Amino acid sequence: MSVQHEHPLEHSADKSPRVLVHICCGPCAVYPLQLLMEKGFQVMGLFYNPNIQPLQEYLLRREGVGLAAGKIGVEIIYMDQKYDPVEFLRRVVFREAQRCFLCQQMRLERTRSVALRGGFGYFTTTLLFSKKQPREQIRMLGQSLETGKCAFLDMDFRAGWEQGAEMSRSMGIYRQSYCGCIYSEFERFQGKL
Ligand code: SF4
Q1: Structural domain range at position 148
Q2: Res. 63: pLDDT tops 50
Q3: Residue 168 pLDDT exceeds 70
Q4: With a 6 A CB cut-off, is 27 part of the ligand 1 pocket?
Q5: Helix (H, G, I), strand (E, B), or coil: what is residue 122?
Q6: What percent of the chain has pLDDT over 70?
Q7: Ligand 1: distance of its center to the CA of 83 in Å?
Q8: Is 89 part of any domain?
């Protein structure tokens, strides 16, 4: 179970660096969150993924993130309490060839904006854990969003791919079978129907 207090963005008296971590799903969260805590960061998670479709899948992944964060002891900010995939679809329709870039950009922009508002010195994303995501593109996107007050934390979480997968399995966290959007859900069946 995840923990939320009333003012999740308030500053802490602890002087260790604070990082806001965009979290895409539970299995991708376990290793990065743990690693960042071990490295001495004050870690907070952000669940903002209007790209996930349909609703049942979104709820499963959100629940999985809560489970993972609760086991590790990280608080989560849930930006999209009310499920609304329209914002995502408006961004990508007629631009399907760039849809992954637009999808990553949308989520990183929001993360950076919340991080700035909350006075975090760093922001990053668990998308850097997945071997299926374009690491270089995400790194460049993150760095393009940096400000003097809030830097993109570029960490190659992929080194913990096996370990993270094993940890999430042992925690019983839901594991998805497609990236998230309706396009990726459709593509997994392409050529098989
Ligand atoms: S395939 Fe994944 S990264 Fe690409 S648009 Fe869909 S949800 Fe986003």
Answers
A1: 18-187
A2: yes
A3: yes
A4: no
A5: strand
A6: 92
A7: 17
A8: yes
